Amino acid sequence: LMSLFMLGVLLILSVISLVALVPPGAPPVPCRQCCDHLEPAEGSGGQPPLGGFSHVPEVRTYINMTILKGDKGDRGDRGTPGKGGHEGPPGSRGPMGLKGSKGQAGLPGDPCKVLYSAFSIGRRKSLHSLESYQALVFDTVFVNLGGHFDMFEGKFFCHIPGIYFFNVNIHTWNFKETYLHIMRNDTEQAILYAQPSDRSIMQSQSLMLQLELNDWVWVRLYKRERENAIYSDDVDVYITFNGYLIKHSVE
């Protein structure tokens, strides 16, 4: 109601101001156009412009909207969250932190299981070929871990599966052929050979073999159809056979 009352007061004051601008008893002012300020041309019979107001003042009503402002409304509902922005570039690396304190000792681990297998043997007697193949038997032991080499049969028996290295050294006989094989079970793996010569020489052969449990490795002299022999004596050891485990395959 107070707002409507103020609006009415403003309208009444505007009308009073308009009436005060027109003096009492003044003759009516005719309407004029934008070009009426020009003098009439001579002989046209037109009337000169009259004195007084050239136009009626424009009345503009101003309403102070601040007195019409209502109370503040309630807060609206929260809108849905917007989409995530693009991932920014990685930041620079930060400074190194302080050294941490020493941690507690861990539980003791299982003991490392190391497996060994090795032999090194020799022969002090010479050997000549017979009507059939024959195993090279040895009479001197340098190393025989675990007794894996059977001195009676002249064979190494595999107790630990894995990769093994083997080596044979012999001395040839004058004017006779030397013809031996390194055997795995009953299969030839490598030959050791020397042609007949008037000079005896040292010969050697080496190889590595992947052995399974209970495989056996030995040296075989060829049979008599090829006259062959190896030399040795009771003073020095001319013939040796060596082998050892490189890497076991037992997990």
TrEMBL record:
It is found in: Secreted, Extracellular space, Extracellular matrix. SUPFAM superfamilies: TNF-like. It comes from the Eukaryota. Its main location: secreted. PROSITE patterns: C1Q (PS50871). Gene3D superfamilies: 2.60.120.40. One of its GO terms (cellular component) is collagen trimer. Residues 112-251 form the C1q domain. Pfam families: C1q, Collagen. SMART domains: C1Q. Residues 1-21 form the signal peptide. Residues 69-106 are annotated as: Disordered. The keyword DNA-binding does not apply. Keywords: Collagen, Extracellular matrix, Secreted, Signal. Residues 69-86 have a biased composition (Basic and acidic residues). This is C1q and TNF related 6a. It comes from Mastacembelus armatus (zig-zag eel).
